[in-house]
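#lab-general

N.A. 3:47 PM
ok so I finally got the sequence cleaned up, no stray characters, all 490 residues accounted for. can someone with queue access submit it? mine expired

B.Y. 3:52 PM
send it over

N.A. 3:53 PM
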Amino acid sequence: MKVQMDHTTGKKPHYNKAIRMGQSDIPILTRYYQCAYVYIYGFTHYIYISQSISQIDMKAELRANPSSTSLSNPALFNSHQNPLSVALKGCLGNLDGACIEKLLLHCANALENSDINSAQQVMWVLNNVASSSGDPNQRLASWFLRALVSRASRVCPTPMSFNGGRSDFERRLMSVTELAGYVDLIPWHRFGFCASNSAIFKAIQGCPKVHILDFSVTHCMQWPTLIDALAKRPEGPPSVRISVPSWRPSVPPFLNVLTEEVGLKLTNFANFRNVPFEFNVIEVSPSFQESSINFNYEFLLTQTNLVREDEELVVNCQNWLRYMPDIASCKDSFLELIKSLNPRILTIVDEDCDLGSSSLASRITACFNFLWIPFDALETFLPKDSRQRMEYEADIGHKIENIIAYEGRQRVERLESGAKFSQRMKNLGFFSVPFGEDTISEVKFLLDEHASGWGMKTEDDMIVLTWKGHNSVYATAWFSYGFEDQIMGH
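B.Y. 4:20 PM
back already:
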């Protein structure tokens, strides 16, 4: 079944309607996705979609993007006295993505050499190209320009104004319903939810009690799907306990309700589905919160009731490990601590890009050649003036500014590629859990709801979400020891 997309708002109809539970041809976790959110939004019953809806074809068609942008002053390309003529050689008066990248790198080199005059010249060119309401290249350039101006202002205050978008980042607080629409807009988050939930569902088959230790930036939006799937388990649902830390990275998306209220909604939903459920917020010491803007995992050492003898532990990390403090051994120490807890399965999802370099130019290259993906994907089904699109892009802009404008402890976005992370896990003694055909089918079914540019592939220990063949998000599952027969045998 495919749900009709509203191309005027960019939203699929938010699931005040739900698919029939008896449609056996739909993968189990995907089938429950729509149903689960009906209740979590506050509705108290299901309204079933008519059978004819299943005939609707809703795959969004890709639209061609403008390949280049005209420069208002092409004389800059021909001036032998101007260093931009060298940086932009071959662009022939038009600025496509490759030429914008050259400009960004030229500006980065100028800033690293404290050459403010050259940096401002490049910013002037970018200012004439960037537009928060233009094509994907222009929109992406506007956020890079903002980040470069922010960085330059720390070197030398500049009076330069630019047309890149809003003057300041706004801390946009979403309702639970708005957050559900946010994660559903493109499969950037749902891909990880689907892959992880499927791996967890398989790993805990036959387990009567499960404790999920959840590290995620998406406020537990992953769990209604899994709860609903467990409610239909042939042997009956297990008792489920979910624990989350009170601390989370100060990055989008932001929610306008407390974590405890989210837990109450999950509890009500689990009760509605007859799944025994407990939700806990693990308090992080205020001294940890005040001493570092980064995640401090040492609070786990003080938890006396973290693992009970009669339950299996599951650890879930969604877009979280990148926020480890910028210390070489910190990420390994956290993973070693998780390993010592002997979880039945550890699921880890993150963006497949390497942004940990100390070189500004290297980060700009990696970031520009990665974050064009969501800008390009949104272009396929949302109009240029869509507020929903601009807000989503602004959240990506928040990330770009942190990657480009900040250094040291203030730079919290430190992505590690999936390949590097997999090697890290093997070096620490973890073993990968292969994703089964059921998981692959569910992910493919999920992607059928979105634009045809989205795809999926397997790489070594990962499954990877792709856009037009380019890696975007990876999902992995791991175990340490003691569960080989149970996990690999299912």
